[in-house]
Design brief:
Order of helices and strands: EEEEHEHHEEEHEHHHHHHH
Number of domains: 2
Helix content: 40-55%
Strand order of the largest sheet: 4-3-2-1-8-9
Strand content: 5-15%
Shape: elongated
CATH topology of the largest domain: Arc Repressor Mutant, subunit A
Number of helices: 11
CATH class of the largest domain: Mainly Alpha
Low-confidence stretches: 127-155
Structural class: alpha+beta
Radius of gyration: 26 Å
CATH architecture of the largest domain: Orthogonal Bundle
Number of strands: 9
Distance between the termini: 36 Å
């Protein structure tokens, strides 16, 4: 049988050669390991694919890795892209203590079948391939093209850095904000004085806004620090949820240097504000880099 080029289910299409998942023709962002998990399930629709099979597929036998954590992370990312749920699975069903099963209907798109060329065409060295055959299958053979080419691993265009480095930078950013909040809460009297000097008639409002957001910020930063330290596999999903509120919080505190303008000068306050305005975007990029590693 001709090798499988793609697997299709509903409006999704998994391109084995490019290691890409598309939905209605639109390319979705899915890393290599979650894609390999998806392909393993699509090759055996309706059958249980054990965790051991997936381990051998994702990592060589001599690889030392936290397999359970790695597979759980890959599965969480796959379900996130598919819009699936572990509690109410539409595509990927968890089989307790065994593995996973793909429950949807899968169509295997085979490689084109080449027809024998005519004598004149043979002399010219030409051949005419037929159109790709579309076949509905309940169990497809293993495709030799389950691994992505090197270019697919860096498809996002994000900077290259080790996961350890990215996590460290992200954690340091959270510690920086945590220091800001604790410093403000430690001397509330100085915070009020700075509010009066910087904002005058609106001093009381500014004081309460910064005091309250500092308390909220401490809780948020502690969560991000601990989740990053323990490499929580759903951190990326949670971060996307809280990012709009976090963006507002960070932008508010980007103006905090103006509270110190009487001591550090207006020029330095402007420079510090410019750097802090950049921070929400930098943190988002770091989070995306973490999800790719």
């Amino acid at each position: 049988m001709n090798p499988v080029l793609k697997y299709a289910f509903d409006d999704f299409e998994a391109d084995l050669k490019a290691a890409e998942l598309r939905r209605s023709g639109t390319r979705l962002k899915l890393q290599l390991q979650p894609f390999q998990v998806l392909v393993a399930l699509l090759e055996k629709p309706g059958e249980v694919v054990t965790r051991e099979e997936l381990r051998l597929r994702l990592w060589p036998e001599d690889t030392f890795v936290d397999f359970d954590h790695g597979l759980n992370t890959a599965m969480a990312k796959l379900r996130d892209v598919l819009g699936d749920s572990a509690t109410r699975p539409r595509y990927v069903e968890t089989i307790a203590k065994r593995g996973y099963r793909f429950s949807g209907e899968v169509r295997a798109i085979l490689a084109p079948v080449k027809t024998p060329p005519a004598a004149s065409e043979a002399r010219a060295g030409n051949s005419a391939p037929s159109a790709a055959a579309l076949q509905t299958t309940q169990s497809a053979g293993t495709s030799p093209a389950t691994a992505a080419p090197p270019a697919a691993v860096t498809e996002s265009g994000l900077p290259r850095a080790s996961r350890k480095t990215v996590r460290l930078l992200f954690t340091l950013a959270q510690i920086m904000y945590l220091i800001f909040y604790l410093s403000a809460l430690f001397r509330l009297d100085r915070l009020y004085e700075s509010s009066v000097l910087a904002w005058r008639s609106a001093a009381s409002t500014v004081f309460y806004v910064y005091a309250v957001t500092a308390v909220v910020g401490v809780a948020v930063r502690m969560y991000l620090i601990t989740a990053t330290s323990f490499d929580y596999h759903l951190l990326g999903e949670k971060y996307r949820i809280i990012y709009p509120g976090l963006f507002v919080l960070d932008m508010l505190w980007a103006l905090a240097p103006f509270l110190l303008a009487d001591r550090i000068g207006m020029g330095l306050a402007l420079g510090a504000t410019a750097a802090l305005v950049y921070m929400p975007f930098a943190q988002r990029v770091l989070m995306k880099m973490m999800q790719l590693r």
